[in-house]
């Protein structure tokens, strides 16, 4: 660039770092810095027979976070808050899916379908078992849940398992654990029956 003696306005960008802390990490802050969460009010009515059914299982069911899963290491079912679901039936269908996974623990049915890693044939088979278990449990509880977004991602895995083994659907249905879940009920009657 040729030196002309003209003055120019130029911008020089530079990065500057800041330390940021959560309000709970700072002692002595005025109360105005601590936002109080509004109390959660349930807008979806619970389904009493379904709530009783899952309470009778004796499973460690924890609520919080955005994901639903069964953690075999700590032997607990993790569920998003009830209010995070579109309707009560979707909550209980998801809980039925995770409760079916819960039955695979060595202290219960000790189900091992050869799962070694996420997405393998053993994983797909366990997910098929859990989905069938959820469907059987929902039918027994007279629930008609909406389709979940996870169904689409599982279909490819299920199709591969079903192509490789023509009897896989029967094997999965046999492992679906609906009888095990029903047997844990106080009356040991069908969950849809009135006691």
TrEMBL record:
Domain of life: Bacteria
Matches recorded under InterPro entries: MPTase-PolyVal (IPR041459)
Pfam families: MPTase-PolyVal (PF18818)
Residues in Polyvalent protein metallopeptidase domain copies: 50-175
Protein name: Polyvalent protein metallopeptidase domain-containing protein
Originating species: Bradyrhizobium macuxiense
